[in-house]
């Protein structure tokens, strides 16, 4: 199904909330997936993969801590939404020339929208690198260098984010970013459903228009 | 006088603490800045041309029609599908599955293949899909009271009785007008750089404007098929008194809370208009005369306003008393002397109720198109511009903002049952927002983030345990549960009218106040609440029809013409 960006963002936000994120982080997930779809990446597929992996994990497991200059989760791989929010919240540090190092992380491409946003805030160009692939973000369309097959891996050993010269490389192809497969739609709707309350007679009564005097 | 000579410092904007209260917002009226009026001003000034490209409707009222407006650069086409609905199928609820008519606004001129594709999807509404070529999706039901009666009268060669027409005010009412990417339609972001969509909700308003034209044509068409040579068309002046009704329930209520920058821009434009007029040093005789006419026409508009809801009945009778006082005050010389508008407005704050004060604000704008008609271009918003959190902000600074902009939440005892009597949630049944009783229904676990006051109080309490020089970024790393409200507080710090300064989950909250505020900016009239959570309104009543735009004079078209002007 081809979806509008507003539909994609709304579904992603609800699914992330249903999978246990706080509303504020779920909003970050919605915006990130929207950005990915708008730039030709399979945003909804990536989020569905992440939510399946992290379903039921408490935030305390996912919360990043800095050890020896590297951000790591307390237990298991980092969540790219949590880590992405951290990148954006620390955009000022990036602007001062710092390199951000992240330990093992799930679905690393989900970091790209956050890195792009942090670069925009800091008024610079950044590179996001993992497993031999590098995304250059800032200004116009995302540019890619290295091994394209590593772009959509489900796990990355470690990721570095640093200020970059704009070594102009191939622009990332724009595929059908708004095309959402039936399987992904089902997965995300399944998570979203958890945010809906079972209807009660009391809630049904008077919520909308009745017929009297029409 | 030039705009830049009207220094905003001369008369300050009203304070957010005054304006952003639900009781006042629930008393807003349409004005020159309302989106329906913005649309018609543009269509007229740019000489948009109307064309009825198709009207293939049979005697049962089944078929399709295409109504197109041609603008200077682009054309837009309403594609309408009419059906013959059994009475028991007719429901205004979002849970309905069939409607008397369904619509989409097509970007350009639809081909036969487009019409065929749309005919398989638009009549299904939520169960169908549209594409980025479509800008809106809508549906409407007939007024059981009026539709058949008007067809019957016209088919016998008679005009329907004006009183009966006025009592209802519309032949069909829309039950949803979806835009902004809903059901696969074009995202607003993809069309917002077109001048005709620079002001908010212009595609939606154009849709409703064309729907009204279609519905009036439809009754006359059905009457002609039924009555043959005996049938007559509606008298043009009676025809113009018929608008499009609308039923709006809780689904729309969270909109203003979910679009804080947009809300800020709407209110700021309105407050800026008021401040510019209050800053005028004097009123010319022509302006005074124009205001007096609009005051009388505004009174007629209120006289046409009927509601059986106890709250609204009291408000309407209070408003009529307000207008009597206002009229007497104006006739006693209130428009003379120095800074008359400022003095009149300040007088209203003590002499009139909220309905009267806010109607005066709207009426004061009527003679001053040159002074205020630029403002709607500032009323759109890029909500994503407020999305990024300033992680470098200190906890001390954030506390200061909360104490300044959220002082009202710090005085509420959030532990009392009344303060959190309600919870907004989405029902599994129809995926629509609902307002539940937190202490009586199992809904709290599903609560939507629509209680900014309560959440700001929780944030303030949590910040009390933080060091003053700590950074927001570090606080959020440990407290992701405050991320939503913290973002909102930072938005409110930059946009003074972004936040409603009332408890949205208290025992006393009236969702119809949120609906009225939004619908008044659309340009709706005759708010008729049917409970504390849904309302019927009228849109485009008294407006010209698409084919009349060029010749009809329509300054202040919303207000009914005075009898002497009609004769």
UniProtKB/TrEMBL annotation, chain A:
Domain of life of the organism encoding this protein: Bacteria
Lineage: Bacteria, Pseudomonadati, Pseudomonadota, Alphaproteobacteria, Rhodobacterales
UniProt-listed InterPro entries: DUF3726
The protein's name in its UniProt record: DUF3726 domain-containing protein
Pfam families the UniProt entry points to: DUF3726 (PF12525)
TrEMBL record, chain B:
Protein name: Uncharacterized protein
Upper taxonomic lineage: Bacteria, Pseudomonadati, Pseudomonadota, Alphaproteobacteria, Rhodobacterales
């Amino acid at each position: 199904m081809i979806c509008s960006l507003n539909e994609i963002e709304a579904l992603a936000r609800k699914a992330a909330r249903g999978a246990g994120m706080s509303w504020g982080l779920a909003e970050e997930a919605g915006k990130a997936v929207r950005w990915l779809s708008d730039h030709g990446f399979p945003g909804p597929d990536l989020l569905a993969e992440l939510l399946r992996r992290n379903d039921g994990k408490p935030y305390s497991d996912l919360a990043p801590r800095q050890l020896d200059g590297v951000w790591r989760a307390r237990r298991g791989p980092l969540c790219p939404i949590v880590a992405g929010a951290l990148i954006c919240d620390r955009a000022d540090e990036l602007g001062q020339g710092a390199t951000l190092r992240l330990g093992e992380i799930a679905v690393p491409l989900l970091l790209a929208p956050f890195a792009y946003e942090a670069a925009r805030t800091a008024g610079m160009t950044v590179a996001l690198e993992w497993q031999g692939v590098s995304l250059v973000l800032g200004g116009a369309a995302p540019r890619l260098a290295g091994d394209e097959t590593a772009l959509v891996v489900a796990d990355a050993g470690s990721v570095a984010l640093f200020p970059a010269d704009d070594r102009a490389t191939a622009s990332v192809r724009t595929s059908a970013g708004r095309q959402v497969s039936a399987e992904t739609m089902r997965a995300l709707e399944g998570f979203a459903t958890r945010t809906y309350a079972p209807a009660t007679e009391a809630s049904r009564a008077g919520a909308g228009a009745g017929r009297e005097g029409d | 006088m030039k705009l830049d000579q009207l220094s905003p410092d001369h008369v300050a904007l009203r304070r957010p603490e005054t304006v952003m209260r639900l009781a006042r917002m629930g008393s807003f009226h349409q004005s020159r800045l309302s989106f329906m009026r913005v649309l018609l001003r543009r269509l007229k000034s740019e000489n948009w041309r109307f064309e009825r490209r198709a009207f293939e409707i049979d005697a049962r009222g089944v078929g399709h029609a295409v109504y197109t407006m041609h603008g200077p650069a682009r054309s837009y086409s309403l594609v309408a599908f009419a059906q013959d609905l059994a009475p028991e199928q007719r429901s205004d609820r979002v849970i309905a599955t069939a409607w008397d008519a369904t619509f989409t606004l097509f970007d350009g001129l639809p081909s036969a293949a487009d019409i065929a594709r749309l005919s398989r999807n638009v009549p299904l509404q939520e169960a169908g899909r549209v594409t980025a070529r479509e800008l809106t999706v809508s549906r409407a039901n007939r007024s059981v009271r009026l539709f058949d009666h008007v067809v019957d009268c016209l088919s016998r060669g008679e005009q329907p009785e004006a009183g009966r027409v006025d009592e209802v005010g519309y032949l069909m009412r829309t039950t949803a007008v979806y835009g902004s990417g809903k059901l696969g339609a074009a995202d607003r972001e993809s069309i917002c750089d077109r001048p005709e969509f620079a002001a908010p909700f212009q595609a939606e308003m154009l849709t409703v404007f064309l729907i009204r034209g279609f519905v009036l044509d439809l009754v006359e068409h059905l009457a002609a098929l039924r009555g043959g040579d005996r049938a007559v068309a509606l008298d043009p002046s009676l025809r113009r008194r018929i608008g499009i009704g609308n039923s709006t329930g809780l689904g729309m209520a969270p909109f203003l809370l979910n679009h804080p920058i947009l809300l800020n821009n709407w209110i700021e434009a309105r407050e800026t208009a008021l401040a510019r007029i209050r800053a005028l040093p004097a009123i010319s005789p022509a302006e005074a005369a124009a205001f007096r006419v609009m005051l009388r026409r505004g009174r007629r508009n209120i006289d046409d306003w009927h509601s059986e809801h106890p709250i609204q009945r009291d408000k309407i009778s209070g408003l009529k008393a307000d207008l009597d006082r206002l009229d007497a005050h104006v006739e006693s010389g209130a428009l003379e002397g120095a800074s008359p508008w400022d003095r009149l407005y300040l007088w209203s704050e003590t002499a009139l109720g909220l309905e009267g004060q806010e109607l005066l604000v709207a009426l004061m704008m009527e003679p001053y198109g040159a002074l205020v008609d630029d403002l709607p271009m500032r009323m759109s918003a890029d909500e994503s511009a407020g999305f990024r959190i300033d992680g470098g902000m200190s906890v001390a600074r954030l506390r200061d903002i909360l104490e300044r902009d959220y002082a009202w939440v710090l005085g509420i005892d959030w532990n009392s049952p009344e303060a959190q009597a309600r919870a907004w949630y989405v029902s599994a049944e129809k995926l629509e927002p609902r307002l539940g009783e937190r202490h009586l229904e199992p809904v709290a676990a599903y609560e939507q983030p629509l209680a900014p006051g309560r959440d700001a109080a929780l944030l303030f309490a949590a910040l009390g345990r933080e060091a003053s020089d700590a950074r927001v970024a570090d606080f959020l790393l440990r407290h992701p549960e405050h991320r939503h409200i913290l973002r909102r507080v930072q938005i409110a710090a930059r946009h003074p009218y972004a936040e409603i300064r009332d408890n949205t989950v208290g025992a006393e909250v009236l969702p119809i106040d949120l609906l009225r505020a939004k619908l008044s900016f659309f340009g709706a009239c005759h708010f008729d609440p049917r409970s504390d959570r849904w309302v019927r309104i009228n849109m485009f009543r008294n407006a010209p029809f698409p084919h009349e735009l060029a010749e009809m004079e329509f300054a202040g078209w919303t207000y009914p013409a005075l009898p002497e002007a009609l004769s």
